[in-house]
Amino acid sequence: MKIAIGSDHAGYKLKEEIAKFLQKEQYNFTDFGTCSPDPVDYPDIGEQVAEGVASGKYDRGILICGTGIGISIAANKVPGIRAALCSNTFSARSSIEHNNANILALGERTTGPGVALDIVKIWLNTVFPGETRHKNRIDKIHAIESKHIQKGE
Ligand code: RB5
After folding, report:
1. pLDDT tens digits, residue range 35-52?
2. What angle do CA 127, 53, 92 make, to 5 degrees?
3. For a substitution probing ligand 1, which of 38, 67, 85 has the most ligand atoms within 8 Å of its CB?
4. Ligand 1, atom nearest to 11 Cα
5. What is the pLDDT of residue 153?
6. Where do the H-state alpha helices sit in 25-132?
7. What is the C-alpha separation between 145 and 16, in angstroms, rounded?
8. Are 5 and 49 in contact (CB under 8 A)?
9. pLDDT, tens digit, for every residue of 47-67?
10. More exposed terminus of the chain, fewer Cβ within 10 Å: N or C?
């Protein structure tokens, strides 16, 4: 599994923790930054990681900002992205099983590092079960996307 990770300055510390974990567990990952606590704009990082995942270059992405809200909203603007902001392991598991999320978003200011790492572990170890009642709902999400792309909105 190829993973893309990224954060703004408010998620930088947690991103470094997650990078350490991914390295230790020998995951194949690319870090899109940011690489310091200096302020950057979360849409810039969210877009890069989302484009990497939407293009198929990466299987999944992990994005962090202060709350996880801004960066998940930005990522979800890229067609094909299903970014899920999770603050607990139940949501993390469900985001794959029910929504086939391809990006996990976390908030460094809202979720402690221990919980965040548990969320990452569970999220990476959960597999979308495929043809279930949920598949049709996910298809409907992308039908909304396609409809609005066609309208040029
Ligand atoms: C940055 O100050 C903060 O606004 C950002 O990290 C995030 O929380 C936005 O949703």
Report:
1. 999 999 999 999 999 999
2. 40
3. 67
4. 6
5. 60
6. 42-54, 69-75, 89-97, 113-125
7. 33
8. yes
9. 999 999 999 999 999 999 999
10. C
Q: 63, 14 in Cβ contact below 8 A?
A: no
- With CA atoms as reference, report the closest residue to 33 among 20, 46, 50: 46
- Whole-angstrom CA distances from 112 to 11, 70, 81, 115, 118 are 11, 18, 25, 6, 10
Euclidean distance between CA atoms 89 and 66, whole angstroms: 19
- Which residues are the active-site residues? 65, 98
Where are the extended beta strands (E) located within the chain? 2-7, 28-31, 60-65, 83-85, 103-107
Bridge-partner residues for 3, per DSSP?
29, 60
Give just the sign of the alpha carbon dihedral 142, 98, 33, 74: positive
Q: Which residues line ligand 1 (CB under 6 A)?
A: 8, 10, 42, 65-67, 69-70
Find out whether 37 and 65 touch, Cβ atoms under 8 Å: no
Running DSSP on this structure, what letter comes out for residue 67? S
